[in-house]
Amino acid sequence: MRQALLVQLNELDWTRTEIETSVKRRSLHQIESYPGRNSLGDMERVISTKGLLSLPLKPQTRPFHPLHTLRRRFPSAAACFPSPALRAHVPTSALHDFSSKERTSIPGPTAAANPERSHLCLGLWAERRRVPTFRAGAAIPADGAGFVEEKEKPKFLGVEISTLTKIIPLGIMFFCILFNYTILRDTKDVLVVTAKGSSAEIIPFLKTWVNLPMAVGFMLLYTKLSNVLSKEALFYTVILPFIAFFGAFAFVLYPLRDAIHPTALADKLLAALGPSFLGPVAILRIWSFCLFYVMAELWGSVVISVLFWGFANQITTVEEAKEFYPLFGLGANIALIFSGRTVKYFSNLRKNLGPGVDGWAISLKGMMSIVVLLGLIICAIYGGVNKFVVNDPSLPRSDRKKKEKPKLGMNESLKVLLSSRYVRDLATLVVAYGISINLVEVTWKSKLKAQFPSPNEYSSFMGDFSTATGVATFTMMLLGRLILRKFGWGVAAMITPTVLLLTGVGFFSLILFGEPLTPLLGSLGMTPLLAAVYVGALQNIFSKSAKYSLFDPCKEMAYIPLDEEMKVKGKAAIDVVCNPLGKSGGALIQQFMILTFGSLANSTPYLGGILLVIVLAWLGAARSLDSQFSPLAKQELEKEKMLKEKVKEPSTEATKEDNDGSKGNGSVHESVSSDSSSNGSPSKQELAPESEGSSETTSSEQSSPVR
Question: Which UniProt keywords apply (predicted)?
Fold first, then answer.
């Protein structure tokens, strides 16, 4: 009987020690020190002291009060041995000793049959109670707080599921937004260019006197609404009016165009002012079409730039943005391809309709129905992401803070531009692109109307144009990195102006000197006008694809070698002066030419000469900037290499010292064995500094129990 009691008591003693050690491991912040000389050795076995926990050299002995949960799990001696006769046979030290000695293995059915350890109330009424098995967990951090080992997050195709729940909805949203934008962009040109009493001459006036003021007014209204509404309410407040307008335009405004357009008043004004004012008067004549034009332009700047990218930056982390934002650019070109095919399909519906049917009205209703449907899908995705992703506390959040850009006035911006040749050359690139693309685009659209006067034919050609632009841009984005690596910055920066120069010369030559080429072009089945339309289309396609794949990356790379002050001030100056000047410069030049020479056709020779001068200045600025950028870039690379070498040297020395220290300190098993051999006292080698150069850190570690 006595022998059986001793066996059961030994098992009870080991179970208590195991539970007690686990509780210490999980609740170190509640236990400042563990009493007894042997306790330090036990804790050294359980918790690694390298970098995570530093124990004092002379621990103070304090009483340990176990948690109330342990009291419920550990029955008292009176409960285990209710009979005084039984308690008389059990030594007192065995009942109260909580030493950390290891239990010798005792064979028996209890340990072999059930891995879940059980502690017993010994005596005549002994009960077997199951308790969970406690296993070793992660180390406790230095601040004493509990640490839970992170489980590996589930992945699909190598990407975490939590990331896909954000990226996939954002990708679908971006596709729908760009799909709509391509339809709207092609439709707006068809409306204002092919309308009766209007032409491509309306575009420069429309951009300057209608589009720009409405964009400024909208942003002021958006700023005020952002201070009042929540982000989710602001999103719906902005996008729903766009969706409602495009649906109402196709089904209400366009069918009522003859009733709501002041055609008679516009005819009187044009007769009084002269044919030079055809563009400004056309804004009044087809005001609903002009409103559609402005709303389509705002969809690109507001819904894409403000709403989508603001929302994407809100819910994605920096690492996710670096990995997936470039894919959004490729997805945008895929949307361009599919939307171009959609425009082509609806534009060709007129061929299957009978005479007297307004084919363009039917095509417009079909395309705007798709715009409304995709707009509602965008809203649904936004609501779902806000409900299931943004409000999910388990998903990572973006901790990016908005960078404060310096606000330079016009005078300060001009001073910055005039003070540096490098910044002046960079500004010339930005202004030259904006002016050149506007000069060519408006002239090309005027010839496009002459070749395709019907809205359906014009729209069908624009569908093919959008598809070709998407394919060319997608291909150039894949080749852009190869060109930059193989040929360098200078060649990549000169590709865009070279393409504009060659195609511009061909385009304006066909317009100005097309008659002598008529027999040659006739043998190819084309007229000079159709050839000019095709060459102008190629110019627009390749210039835009080169801009997205080469011009924009080269422009951003040019800021890198500048010092911090000039980098910040130069970029701000270009944003304040050069971007608006490039966008509105071409429109202002065209307005001056139209009002001076009477029409856009009469201004074509002069516009061609201006384009030639601007592109040559662009090439000169790119060459000059390359001569400055390349040496600075080489210096930056040399500095980076030197910094990397300096970083590697200390890290190599530290690795050697760590290896030497590890040889002196021994392995974990050696430290454990030394602890057990020295009755649990901490060895000097375990508490010694890891490197000779960290004496201050070591002294601070020794002065406090926990680092």
Answer: ATP-binding, Chloroplast, Membrane, Nucleotide-binding, Plastid, Transmembrane, Transmembrane helix, Transport
